[in-house]
Specification:
Elements lengths: L5 H60 L7 H6 L8 H29 L6 H26 L3 H24 L4 H22 L10 H36 L1 H14 L1 H11 L2 H6 L5 H28 L1 H8 L7 H27 L3 H53 L4 H28 L3 H22 L1 H8 L6 H4 L11
Helix pairs in contact: 1-3, 1-4, 1-5, 1-6, 1-7, 1-8, 1-9, 3-4, 3-7, 4-6, 5-6, 7-8, 7-14, 8-13, 8-14, 9-11, 9-13, 11-13, 11-15, 11-16, 11-17, 12-13, 12-16, 13-14, 15-16
């Protein structure tokens, strides 16, 4: 029998995960830097009302995307055997369900747009709804690329699609198409990305149907799809409430602030989430090592996210006025709150992924359901009391006072103590408080927006440098993680995600 070399196998596994994380971060950084400039151009071309109209359509799209493929594509990442055996069945289920959702979107678009206070959004909703079918086509190939840590190929698909969407949107906006320009660009960009994902994926895009495998896939995916609906509701109810209560123009201000506040999440959380679940899943047979990796991911996310969000919160006024123009000034107060919400959401998303890997859908579903139940009245009264900024403030209150305690209790039941978790986050939050204090003083007493923003940025960089230097030991610990060997780590038992 050939002797195995666990260290060498592990080095291969974690080296691949590290390269995937690097490519994922590079893809996200390139995408955000490009879309930042393009978003500024579109905001100045279209104005708050068109952004509000597009936001109405985007909410409908994201609602359908939250469960359009019934959660089966994620099973590819966790499948214990060769995933190519289930790819045809995943493709069939995903496309069939997505086609059904696309039809529902077309029929329901007028009623949805009217309920959101903007009946003119109906054609935009219908065009954007076609992206649901495109998403169904690409769900399997994207999951395969994620499983194989091929974020380099995914980066190409993302970037080409993103640039296609942006350039088409700008051309249409210059041509006077208004909010429809964003919908057309999004649809064409998603088509280009889907074609590239299908070409790059190891098994491509193939259709078929195996009843036995379909049963296992649906037992895994349906609970997650149900949870995803609630996750969507928690993530996007704010836009639904602001649009329904305040109308499209305040919604436009809110959406711009939400997009800016989401920068740290897109830059740091999404790349980690594209790698962390697959890596944690391969450590399931060594729970102490898995918990250690989870804490390390949390510390890293906090170290890079908290200072960035502190800069956005403290410098929201100068940032909005300088970059987007005085017409968007109302977004600044919203951004100050939503930047803080982003910090909490980034950590909650890591917790969500951790419990998904543990197949503990009871926690995933319960937390999201309670969050939603507390969020709806909070958003309504917050919007009535303080407009878009009041709704943003309500989000932070609910997240900190309702959701965080539940997650901490459930985390302790998995063997991760509250003090251990919070202790890994404490340095980042202390640094963030210092950044917020310096940035707030600069925004209040420096009249030149550019100078005030530079002071905020310097404060953030000054906090980030020592944090990253301090985290070098955490990075080393992640690189030094050991499973028994790559072959064994990859053979984790496939557990249907039934409530625990």
């Amino acid at each position: 029998m050939t002797e195995k070399h666990p260290a060498r196998a592990n080095d291969s596994l974690f080296a691949r995960a590290g390269r995937a994380l690097g490519w994922s971060f590079a893809s996200t950084a390139a995408s955000k830097l490009s879309t930042l400039v393009i978003g500024i151009v579109l905001a100045r071309l279209l104005g708050p009302h068109a952004f509000g109209t597009f936001a109405v359509a985007t909410v409908a799209l994201l609602a359908l995307l939250s469960f359009n493929e019934l959660g089966v594509s994620l099973a590819i990442v966790r499948w214990p055997d060769d995933p190519r055996a289930v790819v045809p069945t995943v493709a069939t289920i995903s496309v069939a369900a997505s086609a059904l959702m696309c039809g529902v979107c077309y029929v329901a678009a007028p009623a949805f747009s009217a309920a959101m206070g903007d009946p003119s959004a109906t054609p935009v909703v219908r065009v954007l709804g076609l992206s649901v079918l495109v998403s169904g086509l690409s769900a399997g190939p994207v999951a395969l690329l994620q499983r194989e840590f091929r974020q380099d190929r995914k980066m190409i698909g993302d970037q080409v699609g993103s640039w296609t969407a942006a350039l088409v949107s700008i051309a249409c906006a210059v041509g006077g198409m208004g909010a429809m320009s964003l919908a057309v660009g999004q649809l064409l960009g998603s088509l280009v990305s889907a074609a590239l994902f299908a070409a790059f994926a190891p098994a491509g895009l193939r259709f078929g149907f195996n009843p036995a495998k379909a049963g296992a896939l649906l037992r895994f995916g349906l609970p997650l799809a149900g949870s995803s609906i609630v996750v969507f509701a928690v993530s996007h109810t704010d836009k639904l409430v602001v649009g329904a209560v305040l109308g499209p123009v305040p919604l436009g201000f809110y959406v711009l602030a939400a997009n800016v506040a989401n920068w740290p999440n897109s830059m740091f959380s999404l790349p980690v989430r594209s790698v962390a679940p697959a890596l944690l899943a391969r450590l399931q047979r060594n729970r102490p090592v898995m918990r250690s990796a989870f804490l390390s991911f949390g510390a890293l996310l906090a170290a890079v996210t908290v200072p960035a969000c502190a800069v956005l919160a403290a410098g929201s006024g100068p940032l909005v006025d300088l970059v987007y123009g005085p017409v968007w000034h109302a977004s600044a107060a919203v951004l100050a709150w939503l930047a803080l919400v982003t910090v909490v959401r980034v950590l909650f998303e890591l917790l969500y992924d951790y419990f998904v890997v543990l197949a503990n859908t009871r926690v995933v579903f319960t937390v999201q359901l309670l969050w939603f139940a507390a969020l709806v009245p909070g958003l309504y009264f917050g919007a009535r009391w303080g407009g878009p900024a009041g709704a943003a403030a309500a989000q932070l209150v609910v997240a900190v006072l309702v959701v965080a305690p539940i997650y901490l209790v459930e985390l302790r039941r998995t063997g991760v103590g509250t003090l251990a978790f919070l202790g890994r986050l404490a340095p980042a939050f202390a640094a963030g408080a210092g950044v917020a204090a310096v940035g707030g003083l600069a925004a209040a007493f420096i009249s030149a927006d550019l100078v005030a923003l530079l002071v905020c940025g310097v404060a953030g960089a000054a906090a980030l440098g020592p944090l990253l230097y301090r985290m070098r030991g955490t990075v080393t610990s992640l690189r030094g993680l050991r499973a028994d060997d790559e072959e064994e780590a990859a053979s984790v038992t496939f557990v249907a995600a039934a409530p625990a």
